[in-house]
Amino acid sequence: MKILTSVCLLFIVGFCTSSSQAQDIHYSMFDMAPLELNPTYTGYYAGTFRIGGIYRTQWAGMSISSPPSTSNNARSFNGYQTPSAYIDVPFAIPRKGKPIRNWAGVGISFYYDAVGSENGATLSNLAASLSLAYHLGLGQKGNTILSIAAQGGIMQRRISGDFTFEDQLLGGGAATTDPLYMSALGGGTKTLPDFSGGLMLSHRGRRFGLEAGVSLNHFTNPNYSFMTPATNDDGEARLPMTTISNLIMRIALTKKGNLFLKPLFFFQNTINTTGEGEGLSAFDFNGQLLLGIHFNDMQDITLYLGGGYRASGDAIARIGLDVKGLKFGFAYDINTGTQGLNYNVFQNNNRAMAFEVALSYVAKIYKVPVVDEVLFCPRF
Fold first, then answer.
1. Could you tell me which of 120, 125, 108, 115 has the C-alpha nearest to residue 53?
2. Has residue 380 been placed in a domain?
3. What is the 3 state secondary structure string of 322-346?
4. The total number of structural domains that make up the chain
5. How many Cα atoms occupy the beta-carbon half-sphere of 210 within 13 Å?
6. What is the pLDDT of residues 5-61, one digit of tens each?
7. What is the pLDDT of residue 162?
8. Rounded to a whole number, what is the distance in angstroms from the first to the last CA of the chain?
9. Could you list the residue range(s) of the whole structural domain that residue 86 is in?
10. How much is the mean pLDDT over the chain?
11. What CATH number did the domain enclosing 249 receive?
């Protein structure tokens, strides 16, 4: 009861502190991108090292039948491409004469997010981060764990290609004087620091387990504008702080635990401390339910089937497979509504579909104990 009460308080704090903006990557399989979800997942596993990645593509191949130009020719939109990768390592913290219950983790993660069109116009974000986490085992068994973590890195935004600006449309194709072009399109890049932190309380039981985490991102409100004060009155566009809350459970349906449910919940919100973008809300919620089927203990094979729904109007179908330390996941999204999209503009009828592919591997490298040979001398 104490564990559940603590988890509920932690989750409510993370959920109630905010309202959101779309400056962060949003994976449907958020549990397959652990260091992007919350830095407390750094080193949160049993093994020597872990390496993984996830790739998402969204809205690829959409054709716009009425683009904002003087000619009304069809134009292709390449959609969003978002790959990310990570590697992390746990380190045991021994206690003299006592079993090891506490450990630390260090990891690095990368992600690249790009959107573009057929004429080569591209806006991209590249980020690299270093994560440090500490995991404290609580209780007599140490199977209730309090984790705290910090993450820091750099983010680089880049804009390039052939763009058409409003003054060109109104001026019949004359050269643009838009300040964004003047300051950024000559190979414009913007590099900024980015910091975040996280807290998680988890419990690992034989028939029930859960992970409840909260992370705070962009808490320095970095300026991500391409423009400078010389080309813009303010010259700033502050990245608002965001909170991400997640709740992941494992509920056994049989005594052996070979059949279980895995509910997953994700909330993302914004804490607007800059005064910019007030009234804008892009609250993101992702709720899923997976059925896990464990086949045998020798091969350690588990199959996952299920799906869920996102607040943006996306229905999600998922399938996954675990084989020993190897994890594979595939997700397919289809937009069921028209939020933020005018489908009359698009020539094809792919309904803003997206898919994700994820893969991770936990290596377990242990020293083989050396056993001295013993020669038994029988008595006569």
1. 108
2. no
3. EECCEEEEEEEEEECCCCCCCCCCE
4. 1
5. 18
6. 444 443 433 444 333 344 567 799 999 999 999 999 999 999 999 999 999 998 765
7. 66
8. 64
9. 2-363
10. 79
11. 2.40.160.40
